[in-house]
Amino acid sequence: MNSIKNIFPLGFPWQTQDPFLFCAYHYDLYPKGNEEMGPAVSLKGRNLGNDFTIKDGWRMYHGKTIPGFPSHPHRGFETISIANKGFCDHSDSLGAAGRFGNGDVQWMTAGAGVQHSEMFPLLNTEEKNPLEFFQIWLNLAKKDKFVAPHFAMLWNEDIPIIKNTSSTIKVIAGTYNKVNACNPAPNSWAANTENEVAIWTLHLEANTSFSLPASKNDINRTLYFYDGDAILIEDKTITPNHGIDLISNKETTIKVGKEKAHILLLQGKPIKEPIVQHGPFVMNTETEIRDTMKEYGLTQFGGWPWQYADNVHPKEKGRFAKYPDGTLIEK
Fold first, then answer.
1. 171 and 160 in contact (C-beta within 8 Å)?
2. Which residues of 96-115 are buried (b: 16+ CB within 10 A; e: fewer)?
3. What pLDDT digit, counting tens, does each position of 136-179 carry?
4. Kind and range of the H or E run holding 82
5. How much is the pTM?
6. Nearest CA to 63 among 135, 13, 132, 120?
7. pLDDT confidence of 129, banded at 50, 70, 90?
8. Is 64 helix (H, G, I), strand (E, B) or coil?
9. Is the peptide bond before 13 cis (omega within 30 degrees of 0)?
């Protein structure tokens, strides 16, 4: 039986399956930074505030001086942000903050509602500042839509990485060959192991084969082949910038072409509940969306405690996480 259900081109953002809502892949070859941590080049010709067109290899997104995403609200789901290269500065309405990068992951449960900003400070003034960054939205079940917001940092040093001569597998969520990821957020769909949620990055060496283990149950599983030459799954040759929906409870062999293949895997048991989305709010009914918009208009989900919507941390600051209770962890 063929294990491939569907092959599809990757756009921006990437197409996902329940329980995932959204996946954006950011690859920007930022230039040297200036003293304000923005690009040390002219921003002329860019649609500042909404710059999503790749120009000279990079974008400013919603940032006007520093690239990134100034303060914006979320409710009803989780954001999982993977910073493979470069850095992200997090600030939120709970007073939590952090700078993470070079393999770190931030896991935030928006739950009942939170504002946060995600800016990409260009810390290097002598060399370019490449950024490779994934943001994944994982839905919350109806019973958990209004849980208290939660913020956690998963440091690269703590995330399980399984290396051998042909592959490097980073286990951000779930279990790979009996190796368990760090604990997910407590109210996450990923917190129940029966849901078999997995987020793995696969870096497969050229001219090798890799066996993707079968899941216990028939759930949703998608591979995102975003960099390399070609891979072969059964009789299908697949080129980069394609997604592959697989039958999950069957072992799948991936044969790698003449260049190393870089793949993101997202899988999980679907929640199978109604989804009504309005921008950064994901609820189960139109009434809940209207109530959410009204509540946000009145409360701003606690307001914004930072001086600037595009808050960044001091340039000399290293990787750190400051939690809402004041706990500070520095790396």
1. yes
2. bbbbbbebbbbbbbbbbbbb
3. 999 999 999 999 999 999 999 999 999 999 999 999 999 999 99
4. strand 77-85
5. 0.97
6. 120
7. very high
8. coil
9. yes
